[in-house]
Amino acid sequence: MDSNSKKIGIGMTSARTRQRLIDRLIKQGIINKRVLDVIEKVPRHSFVDEALSSRAYEDTALPIGFGQTISQPYIVALMTELLVSLLPESGKFNRLLEIGTGCGYQAAILSSFANEVFSIERIKPLFHKSRQNLLKAGIKNVSLRLADGNLGWNNKSPFQGIIVAAAPLKIPKDLLMQLDDGGRIIAPIGDEKDQVLVCISRKGNNFDSESICPVKFVPLIQEI
Ligand code: SAH
C-alpha cells in the first residue's frame, strides 16, 4: 500500500476499487485493452485533492480548483481510445499534444502511448500543480507550457494526435495546421448548453469530422 492510500483509508484506492472502474468502462463500451490497462495503472487519486481521493475511481468528473474539472474517466478513456485505435498493436505515436493540462491526468494517460506528450495550460497554479503530479507519478515524457492553447505548440509540430480538453466554438485553425497527415484531433465543440465530442481526421489538406457523443466540458478560453 502506498502512503497516500494509508492516509485516506484502506480500500479507497485498492486494486478492487480500480477493477470496478475498469468493469464499468467495459460495460460502457471501451474495448481497447491497452487503454483499459493504462487507466487501471495510473493513480487517478494522486491527481486530485486529497479530500476527494476517495472518489477518484468513481466514473465522475471532479473539481481541481479555479472552476476547472478533471474529466470523467469514461470520457478520458473514450478520447484516448479514439486516438490509440490509429496505432498498430503495441505501437506508439511520436508526438501528441493536449490543450488544457488541468491536473495532468489525461497527459499521464497519453504518456504511455507516445514518445513525447506536449500539454498546454493557461492557469499558472494548475500548470505548476500538474508538473508536481506528473513527477510524483514518475512520468518524464510530458512537456508542459503555460500559454494560450488556441495557438498550439508550433515548433514541436506536427502531432499525430491532439486532444482538446476544453470546448471551443470551433477548432482553432492553428491546431488543424499542426496536425500530421493521417492524424486525429479529438475535441468537444460547442457552448455550455450544446456540446458534442468530435473526431477530426486529416488526409492531406482534407479534414473529415465525425460526431461521437454529447459531452460537457469547460469552455476553451479565447485570450484577447
Ligand atoms: N485534461 C485535464 C482536464 C482539463 S479541464 C485533466 O486531465 O485534468 C480543462 C483545462 O483547460 C482547464 O485547466 C483550463 O484552465 C484549460 N484551458 C481553458 N482554456 C484554455 C486555453 N485557451 N489554453 C490553455 N488551457 C486552457
Q: Flag low-confidence runs.
A: 1-10
Helix percentage: 25-40%
Ends: how far apart? 47 Å
Please, what is the average pLDDT? Answer: 94
Largest sheet: 7 strands, mixed
Strand content: 25-35%
Q: What ligands can be seen in this structure? A: S-adenosyl-L-homocysteine
> Architecture, CATH level 2?
3-Layer(aba) Sandwich
Total tally of structural domains: 1
Number of strands: 9
Given the structure, what is the number of helices?
A: 7
| Element-level helix/strand string | HHHEEHEHEHEEHEEE
CATH superfamily: Vaccinia Virus protein VP39
| CATH T-level topology | Rossmann fold
What is the CATH class name? Alpha Beta
**Structural class designation:** alpha/beta
Biggest sheet strand line-up:
5-4-3-6-7-8-9
Global morphology: globular
> Could you tell me the radius of gyration in angstroms?
17 Å
Q: What does this protein look like?
A:
- With 224 residues, this protein is of the alpha/beta class.
- It has a single domain (59-215), classed as Vaccinia Virus protein VP39 (Rossmann fold), CATH 3.40.50.
- 29% of the residues lie in helices and 28% in strands.
- The chain contains seven helices and nine strands.
- It has helices spanning 3-8, 15-27, 33-41, 73-84, 105-110, 124-136, 173-177; strands at residues 62-65, 68-70, 93-99, 114-121, 142-146, 159-164, 179-190, 195-203, 206-214.
- A seven-stranded mixed beta sheet has the order 5-4-3-6-7-8-9. The protein has a two-stranded antiparallel sheet with strand order 1-2.
- Strand 4 (114-121), helix 6 and strand 5 form a beta-alpha-beta unit.
- The longest helix has 13 residues, at 15-27.
- The chain starts with a helix and ends in a 10-residue tail after the last strand.
- 40% of the residues are buried.
- Mean pLDDT is 94; it is low at 1-10.
- The structure holds S-adenosyl-L-homocysteine.
